[in-house]
């Protein structure tokens, strides 16, 4: 209460809640309106907000420019500890300030364009495209952010205006591209060239952004610009070294015993993770498919799992789930997940831990479905170590091994592709070497025998 000049009392403004640590934020009640904290410029300047949800919170930024209030979602808060995509308080402050600078720049650019339309630079086009993609992705990982990292503000391609863009600008930029970070996330000592697959994904985003800008500014652009964009962002063919990398390094195959050891090790590390690895090993499905399984997708009496279709490709048509037969011992091991649960419940759940007490004190807080693929990173590393597998073994090796196992068993390529929700062309392109090498016994049955009898197995 505050005392007025006339002697009466009035309510004082509520004390702002502190949001700078996860412990303080955990005590805040959930509400739709963010808890705001000014970070620059005083009243009407840049503010950082924390919107508390039922389970976790997100950071939002706010700025008032010439009387107009603008808000933007920055990303999830690190309430559950450090993880990919989560922002700490200092990181959120920095993101809010950077975002506010871009908003001011947009307004100033608009003032300069009042006398006539202006054509943006390639960097400005990519920034606008990335912001739209991030809004649609609702804070999830977005490939356009990867493109921005390879197109800094001082890059020659980034500085060129769309009206002056040529395919040579793009070709010169591609020649200088290299990975800034190694597979371990640390800065690379020697920056290697990007693989053709990574390059084509960057070009897909660049093409989409430029085509949108060409359509928007078509009245101010020369007629040849669409052709320059098409030529410069064309899909690049795989180089020989890319194919050698796939065949010699990334295509990891595991024996059946190695897979069994990995499954048992996963259960010893974390039972929830063990069920996920069990399904990955027995079906060869992608993580994103397995995470979307429901209780009803486990058909106990038919000995199969209805695997949701992948979300790869451009088609928006929803495809029905594919029935994948599995052994009955796998079904039996999954049975505890089905007891007392509804058919539409997510099959696989995991604990979310929260930080309490000392620096090393973490306790189970609540359960939720598996989320982004980085959720399994630490559990997989522990599993590989516990199983005694090579330390560079990736979880995708379970899928590679499942595909090759089907091919060795003599299943038609079309059936193997259908069971693994992929195309025949992909199987033939990436697994042809293994088909020839690992099916020699099948081919030898049809070999010509000089003696006129059945084919004799060659000596090892």
Describe what this molecule looks like in 3D.
The structure is a single chain. The protein has 460 residues and is α+β, with helices and mostly antiparallel strands. The protein has 3 domains: 99 residues, Integrase, DNA-binding domain (Double Stranded RNA Binding Domain); 120 residues, DNA polymerase, domain 1, CATH 1.10.150; 192 residues, Intergrase catalytic core (hpI Integrase, Chain A, Orthogonal Bundle). 42% of the residues lie in helices and 13% in strands. The chain has 18 helices and 11 strands. The strands form 4 sheets. It has a 4-stranded antiparallel beta sheet with strand order 3-4-5-6, covered by helices on one side. Strand 4 and strand 5 form a beta hairpin. Helix 3 packs antiparallel against helix 4, helix 7 packs antiparallel against helix 8 and helix 11 packs parallel to helix 15. 24% of the residues are buried. The C terminus is likely disordered.
Which secondary-structure class do the elements indicate?
alpha+beta
Overall spatial form: flat
The percentage of residues in β strands lies in: 5-15%
| Number of individual domains | 3
- Tell me about the biggest sheet? 4 strands, antiparallel
Biggest sheet strand order reads 3-4-5-6
CATH uppermost class of the largest domain: Mainly Alpha
What's the short story on this structure?
The protein contains 18 helices and eleven strands. By secondary structure, the chain is of the alpha+beta class.
Could you name the key traits of this structure?
460 residues; alpha+beta; DNA polymerase, domain 1; 3 domains; three-stranded antiparallel sheet; flat; disordered C terminus; DNA recombination; DNA-binding; Integrase_catalytic
């Amino acid at each position: 209460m505050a005392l007025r000049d006339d002697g009466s009392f009035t309510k004082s403004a509520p004390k702002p809640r502190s949001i700078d640590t996860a412990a303080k934020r955990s005590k805040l009640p959930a509400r739709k309106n963010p808890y705001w904290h000014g970070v620059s410029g005083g009243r009407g300047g840049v503010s950082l907000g924390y919107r508390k949800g039922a389970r976790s919170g997100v950071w939002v930024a706010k700025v008032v420019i010439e009387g107009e209030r603008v808000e933007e979602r920055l990303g999830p808060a690190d309430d559950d500890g450090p993880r990919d995509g989560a922002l700490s308080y200092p990181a959120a402050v920095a993101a809010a300030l950077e975002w506010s600078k871009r908003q001011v720049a947009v307004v100033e650019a608009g003032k300069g364009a009042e006398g006539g339309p202006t054509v943006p630079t390639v960097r400005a086009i990519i920034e606008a495209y990335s912001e739209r993609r991030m809004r649609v992705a609702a804070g999830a990982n977005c490939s356009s952010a990867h493109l921005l990292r390879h197109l800094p503000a001082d890059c020659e391609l980034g500085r060129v205006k769309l009206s002056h863009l040529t395919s040579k600008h793009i070709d010169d930029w591609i020649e200088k591209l290299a990975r800034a970070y190694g597979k371990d996330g640390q800065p690379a000592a020697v920056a290697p060239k990007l693989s053709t697959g990574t390059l084509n994904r960057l070009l897909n985003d660049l093409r989409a952004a430029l085509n949108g800008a060409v359509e928007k500014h078509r009245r101010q652009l020369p007629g040849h610009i669409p052709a320059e964009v098409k030529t410069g962002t064309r899909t690049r063919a795989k180089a020989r070294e890319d194919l050698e990398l796939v065949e010699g390094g990334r295509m990891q195959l595991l024996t059946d015993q190695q897979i069994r050891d990995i499954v048992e090790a996963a259960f010893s590390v974390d039972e929830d993770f063990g069920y996920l690895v069990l399904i990955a090993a027995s079906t060869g499905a992608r993580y994103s498919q397995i995470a979307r399984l429901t209780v009803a997708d486990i058909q106990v009496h038919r000995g199969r799992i209805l695997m949701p279709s992948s979300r790869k490709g451009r088609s928006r048509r929803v495809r029905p789930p594919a029935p994948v037969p599995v052994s009955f011992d796998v079904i039996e091991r999954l049975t505890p997940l089905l007891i007392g649960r509804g058919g539409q419940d997510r099959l696989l759940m995991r604990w979310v831990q929260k930080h309490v007490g000392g620096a090393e004190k973490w306790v189970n807080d609540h359960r939720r479905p598996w989320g982004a693929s980085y959720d399994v990173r630490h559990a997989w590393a522990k599993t590989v170590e516990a199983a005694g597998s090579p330390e560079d073994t990736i979880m995708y090796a379970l899928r590679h091994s499942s595909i090759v196992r089907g091919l060795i068993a003599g299943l038609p390529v079309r059936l193997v592709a259908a069971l693994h929700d992929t195309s025949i062309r992909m199987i033939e392109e990436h697994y042809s070497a293994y088909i020839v090498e690992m099916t020699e016994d099948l081919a030898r049955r049809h070999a010509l025998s000089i003696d006129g009898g059945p084919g004799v197995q060659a000596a090892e």
